[in-house]
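Spend some time on this chain, tokens included, and walk me through the fold:

. . .
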Amino acid sequence: MKKVIEFYLSGDRVYSTREKAINQLYNNRGYGELKGNKLFLSLIEAAYLVERGWIKVLDEDRELTFEEIFKLGKRKDEDFDIKYLVYKDLRDRGYIVKSALKFGSHFRVYRKNAEHSDWLIWVLRESEKLSPNDMTARVRVAHGVRKNMVMAIVDEDNDVVYYKIEWIKF
């Protein structure tokens, strides 16, 4: 992308009405959610695209830095930092990453040009405890919607390791 696309802060997300944003980001690369003539991005998506230099985010007339967007995200979600690391890692690998809140997970992940997602991603810190019941519930939901459940574990060095959790029938 050559020219940076302007987005505007609106609560816990950003939006643009520019056709270029809709074509380049939504239609061609799977970013955001289209509602009417507005493309909405989550703060994680916005931070990622600002860091890449593809968009700029304005709050009133002031341009927000990557760090400011990150702080906004962290204020709204204490795990924003690790979710961002996982989001960035998956996007950098070429996957389309969307919210999976309605599935009880953090992200749903699509292969490029796929109509349906293959994976549900749950993000955890390495030091975090997860009960067997929590894990079972997440796997059941994933299985019920024909997705693979993946735990993305972020360690103290901010490295991400992915574990596929499966339901096995004997």
About this structure: The chain has a mean pLDDT of 93. The domain at 5-75 is CATH 3.40.1170.20 (MutS, DNA mismatch repair protein, domain I).
